[in-house]
Design brief:
The complex is a heterodimer of chains A (254) and B (328).
Chain A (H helix, E strand, L loop, with lengths): L3 E4 L2 E3 L21 E3 L1 H17 L3 E7 L4 H9 L4 E6 L7 H14 L6 E5 L10 H9 L3 E5 L1 E5 L2 E7 L4 E7 L2 E5 L11 H9 L3 E4 L9 E5 L9 E5 L4 H10 L6
Parallel strand pairs in A: 1-4, 1-6, 4-5, 5-12, 6-11, 7-11
Antiparallel strand pairs in A: 2-3, 8-9, 9-10
Helix pairs in contact in A: 2-5, 3-4
Chain B lengths: L1 E4 L2 E2 L2 E2 L1 H17 L4 E6 L5 H10 L4 E5 L9 H9 L5 E5 L2 H14 L3 E11 L2 E7 L4 E6 L5 E5 L16 E5 L5 H5 L4 E3 L2 H9 L3 E5 L10 H10 L2 E4 L1 H5 L20 E5 L5 H7 L4 E6 L5 H4 L3 E4 L2 H16 L6
Parallel strand pairs in B: 1-4, 1-6, 4-5, 5-11, 6-10, 7-10, 13-14, 13-15, 15-16, 16-17
Antiparallel strand pairs in B: 2-3, 7-8, 8-9
Classes of the chains: A alpha/beta (254), B alpha/beta (328).
Bound molecules: flavin-adenine dinucleotide (FAD) and adenosine monophosphate.
Flavin-adenine dinucleotide sits at the interface of chains B and A.
Chain lengths: 254, 328
């Protein structure tokens, strides 16, 4: 039986245009809303599967504003068994603070979590370090960039894309893994899952520590580049003009 | 001293590591008080090439961490090697390995770490500008603690040789690794997606497919275009997330970074995270129903229209021009 703790972060939806708050310290997400990063969704899928296969429990944990309950419920709708929200101002927490707060929660929790999953990097702040810092806090081995994992007795066999092919690792439990999208296909919530998530009582806690901060001074947006596009035309009639471009670029002579 | 972790392979140092060395040298030049040294690891397949590349980058000395523990990748072991050389700054490229190793360095030293840095804007206290939101915004961030731990964003600078090459001192050493350092080593490498990715990164022509394609069964036109051009198919993240195409075909921030002669983006809106992977293409062509899509406005050439009408017409024209009895 392997109990899995999956740490997820509520992040602004940032695939479209980005607006900053007036003080330039945060993303203004009022019009776009919040979501989970793809890595975190994959961590949920992987963690739920591993817990289920071994008869264990899958819990999701988030440190953030009250609104993060939305993401925790989503995780439950796609299979997690329970959810914990550590309420805190997410902007005040740097990656070392987040790792310390998760570690504190893991130490006090009644359940022991043999496996902890995080996303490889957060879609908003992209710090690439919460998993590794948490591993040092808890004195556990850690792997990052992992696509798939299976539990074999007291070890985890994990795979991730390396520079020469697929890197295979085998580490002893208890362990920590930072999951990268590409290995598992996150499922959509079922109607039953949604019902379960709606009824779920989220365990709420106060932050166990005063954060040291992230070092953020402010955010900036890149300068928009003026367009220099050459329009070749509309619809299929423009096809010959495009083939001319290809010919001039020297990619037709094969 | 600025210590740069250099990732190497069969062809020598990785381009991203050369970018990082250039970034470090420019910072050292501005500070006037710092030198740049490099760390290489493991059995070093192309030692002579690496030595030349590091000399061209003006590196003052090279620390080569060798020994049996360094032959297989393990982030903890690499971090131990870096910590064995005291430095003011530790830098690596913001690659999967660079980010992982430096996170270990920072966690052990109890310092902060700034990922995907594009510029050091101040040095007292050290303040950097770095990519956040998948490259869509920048954060000015204070980096506390010593050493200053920084990963450098891909393409933040062009790799450039130093004005004068150096004759770097070469020091071999065997870091003292712990059991924990070795416990997370790669146990074996299997063939797989990484091989397919290299087809995309090395391709001369790439045809990109976005959500505008419509569905997993609607790729025939694009695959024919790919075939007629001897091109490689790439995709946006929506396309791989929906399972229409395999993940290794993804182009962008979290996929491959391509640099073909021509990139033809079909039904792709052109989110910043997609641009992050394709902006190095020499010529970019967009086919999109929306003339205001960022992929169109940022392209060199564009056709506004339904790709399922435009692409068959291109295929037809290509077949006509390359037919043996073509009139032209
Ligand atoms: C941290 C992070 C990392 C990310 N990494 C990546 C990444 O690596 N790669 C990536 O691609 N994305 C990435 N994204 C996602 C990115 O933000 C966009 O969501 C994604 O690129 C959009 O894909 P798309 O252009 O295919 O789809 P859409 O944005 O939905 O665009 C579809 C386009 O097709 C056009 N269209 C529709 N029908 C037709 C038709 N019949 N003919 C022609 N055109 C048509 C539409 O006008 C539209 O412009 C990332 C996002 C985040 C937050
Ligand atoms: N506030 C948070 N609450 C829970 N998990 C988090 C939080 N911040 C980061 N994480 C986890 O750590 C991963 C990596 O984040 P980062 O190191 O900040 O890029 C994320 O994908 C999450 O899984």
């Amino acid at each position: 039986m392997t109990n899995v703790l999956i740490c997820i972060k509520r992040v602004p939806e940032i695939s479209g245009e980005i607006l900053l708050s007036d003080d330039q310290y945060s993303i203004d997400a009022r019009h776009v809303g919040y979501t989970l990063s793809a890595h975190d969704e994959c961590a949920i899928e992987l963690g739920v599967g591993l817990a289920k296969d071994t008869g264990g429990h899958a819990r999701v944990l988030s440190i953030g504003a009250a609104g993060a309950a939305e993401q925790l419920r989503y995780a439950v709708a796609v299979g997690a068994d329970s959810a914990t929200l550590i309420e805190a101002d997410p902007e005040a927490f740097g990656p070392a603070d987040v790792a310390a707060a998760i570690a504190s929660e893991v130490r006090q929790a009644q359940m022991s979590f043999e496996l902890i999953l995080v996303g490889n990097d957060a879609a908003d702040t992209g710090d690439f370090q919460v998993g590794v810092r948490l591993a040092y806090q808890l004195d556990r081995p850690v792997l990052t960039g992992i696509n798939t994992a299976e539990i074999r007795d007291a070890t985890v066999l994990a795979r991730g894309a390396g520079p020469q092919g697929v890197d295979v690792f085998e580490i002893p439990l208890p362990a920590l893994i930072a999951v990268q999208e590409g290995g598992v296909e996150p499922r959509y919530p079922s109607i039953r899952g949604r019902m379960k998530a709606k009824r779920l009582k989220i365990e709420q806690k106060a932050a166990p520590l005063e954060p040291a901060g992230s070092g953020r001074v402010r955010l900036t947006l890149p300068e928009p580049k003026p367009s220099t596009v050459h329009m070749l035309g509309e619809g299929p009639d423009a096809a010959p003009a495009l083939v001319d471009v290809l010919a001039r670029s020297g990619v037709l002579n094969r | 001293m600025i210590l740069v972790l250099v990732e190497t392979g069969a062809d020598g140092a990785a381009v991203t590591s050369l970018e990082t060395l250039t970034f470090a040298r420019q910072l050292a030049g501005r500070l006037g008080t710092q030198s740049v040294e490099a760390m290489v690891t493991g059995s070093l397949e192309a030692a002579a090439t690496v030595r030349d590349q590091l000399a061209a980058q003006g590196v003052e000395s090279v620390h080569h961490a060798g020994g049996p523990g360094m032959d297989r990748y393990s982030a903890g072991a690499w971090a131990t090697a870096l910590a064995a050389v005291p430095s003011d700054y530790v830098m690596a490229a913001g690659t999967p390995r660079g980010s992982e190793i430096l996170a270990h360095v920072a966690a052990r030293a109890g310092t902060s770490m700034a990922a995907n840095v594009v510029d050091v804007v101040d040095t007292d206290p050290v303040t950097v500008s770095r990519q956040v939101m998948g490259g869509a915004a920048f954060e000015q961030m204070r980096v506390d603690g010593s050493p200053t731990v920084i990963t450098v964003a891909g393409h933040a600078v062009e790799p450039a040789d130093a004005a004068r090459p150096s004759d770097p001192a070469w020091r071999e050493f065997e870091p003292e690794l712990t059991e924990a350092d070795l416990a997370t080593a790669v146990v074996r490498v299997e063939e797989g997606e990484a091989d397919n990715t290299s087809a995309l990164t090395g391709a001369r022509v790439v045809v990109g497919a976005g959500r505008g394609v419509g569905g997993a069964d609607d790729f025939d036109d694009l695959l024919e275009l790919t075939d007629l051009l001897g091109a490689t198919l790439g995709a946006s993240r929506v396309v791989t997330s929906l399972g229409w195409r395999p993940h290794y075909e993804q182009i962008g921030q979290t996929g491959s970074r391509i640099s073909p002669d021509v990139y033809i983006a079909c039904g792709i809106s052109g989110a910043v995270q997609h641009w992050a992977g394709c902006q190095s293409a020499k010529t970019i062509v967009a086919i999109n129903t929306d003339a205001d899509a960022p992929m169109v406005t940022g392209a060199d050439y564009a056709i506004v229209g339904d790709l399922h009408e435009v692409v068959p017409a291109i295929n037809e024209e290509l077949r006509r021009r390359t037919a043996p009895d073509a009139a032209e």
